[in-house]
Design a protein that fits this description.
This protein has five helices and no strands. With 178 residues, the chain is an all-alpha fold.
Amino acid sequence: MKKLISLAVLAWMLICTSAFAVADTLTVDSMAVAQRVSDNEPGLAKIVEASSGTHWDVVALFSVVSPFLTGFLIVLIILIFNHRNKKAKYRLMEKAIEAGREIPQSFFEEKKPKKTPLQSAFALIGTGIGLFLMLWFVADHDVAFVGAIPLLIGLGKLLAYKMEEKSSKSEENDQQNG
């Protein structure tokens, strides 16, 4: 599932970069047309120059719509794969019943990976640091502090985990001594 989401994100990035490449090509082409037209028809050159920036409307619309479309497609793909997996599981159960075999109880239990609060805290801390560094080098330094949000949430979760661990140890000591 993680590979699928990673593939979708990479496809979205490729689409976005290709849209900007097309926009740059359109800019160069429209400038060349405007130059040729201005040599022959000065009145027509003004019209071409005025309409040469219209491709940025398409790029702006695409850049606004594409994240939502990508998110919708990722959720749709996840739902489709979950549905197929459940369908396959039910088909297998049906065949086992038809063959007269018993189905173990573990087959009905859904396996969910356990994520400890410590893992969650470290994931948020890592995300915050990565986001901070990426924005620091790519964007304005003031924008980089957006990465402090998951970083501070992760530090808060880590602090809560340590405090909970400390209180549970003190309770165990009280029960053993008392």
